[in-house]
Amino acid sequence: MIEVQEIRLDPDQRRTWRGDEEIVLSRKEFDLLHLLMAHAGEIVSREELMLEVWHTTFFTSSKTIDVHLGWVRRKLGDDSRNPHLITTIRGQGLRFETEDLRTPN
């Protein structure tokens, strides 16, 4: 079991929860989230994401990651304009944050 912030992910059962609520993810969404959570606090490059999740060494579409990431963020309740779970590090990749970095309103 991987637990980061309020998200729990069971790689063996391929199940994910936010608090007590189970979140249903597609296979690719799960694989994307699993890779990010397994490396929580570290930047995961887009190249690594494409290789590990899509098993390709080239970008079939530069939007593939963005589209799947959008679905994952929506399902997890992570606002892309003020993210607290997955942040985009421009020019480097994505990072699953180990703590909530949102600024209080």
Automatic annotation (TrEMBL):
<dbReference type="InterPro" id="IPR039420">
    <property type="entry name" value="WalR-like"/>
</dbReference>
<feature type="DNA-binding region" description="OmpR/PhoB-type">
    <location>
        <begin position="1"/>
        <end position="98"/>
    </location>
</feature>
<dbReference type="Pfam" id="PF00486">
    <property type="entry name" value="Trans_reg_C"/>
</dbReference>
<protein>
    <recommendedName>
        <fullName>OmpR/PhoB-type domain-containing protein</fullName>
    </recommendedName>
</protein>
<dbReference type="InterPro" id="IPR001867">
    <property type="entry name" value="OmpR/PhoB-type_DNA-bd"/>
</dbReference>
<feature type="domain" description="OmpR/PhoB-type">
    <location>
        <begin position="1"/>
        <end position="98"/>
    </location>
</feature>
<keyword id="KW-0238">DNA-binding</keyword>
<dbReference type="InterPro" id="IPR036388">
    <property type="entry name" value="WH-like_DNA-bd_sf"/>
</dbReference>
<dbReference type="InterPro" id="IPR016032">
    <property type="entry name" value="Sig_transdc_resp-reg_C-effctor"/>
</dbReference>
<keyword id="KW-0597">Phosphoprotein</keyword>
<keyword id="KW-0902">Two-component regulatory system</keyword>
